Amino acid sequence: MIIVPVERSDIRRAAEVHSVSWQESHRDFCTADFVALHTHEHQEKYIARKMDEGSRFWMLEDPDPAGVVSVKDSLIEDLYVLPDRQNRGYGTALLRHAVSQCRFMPVLWILENNARARKLYEKEGFRETGNRKAVTGKLDEIELALDVVYGTAGE
Fold this sequence. Notes:
Elements: E1 2-5, H1 11-26, H2 32-37, H3 40-52, E2 56-61, E3 65-72, E4 75-81, H4 90-100, E5 107-111, H5 115-123, E6 126-134, E7 140-146
Parallel strand pairs: 4-5
Antiparallel strand pairs: 1-2, 2-3, 3-4, 5-7, 6-7
């Protein structure tokens, strides 16, 4: 298992992982039409735009791409592992890597109904901050922040 930076030449591979994983994780609470919009091509543009805006992406390979994560400043986003590659420690490895890239207290946002992600983040020391954002009239995102920092970028 290796975690590598996503370069412009790797965006397509990262987008394929992001697309499949995003679609699977949102299938139960998003409309089928909305899920279908998140094609590899759509996610390729999304990742390129986020990189243009300063986000750094990493991809976990074992040996093929299995997961992705991004960090901008100390905001961790886009942590996705392919559905058939989950429960092998990849999400934990990506999260720990992302935390190590943060200069300040790592934070992230999750959908309040994402119990699986919440379990991972809480196991790794993230706790609710009390901040919330409405996504829809029925669904919020909640902010989590890390209590214990593993390291900081540049160490």
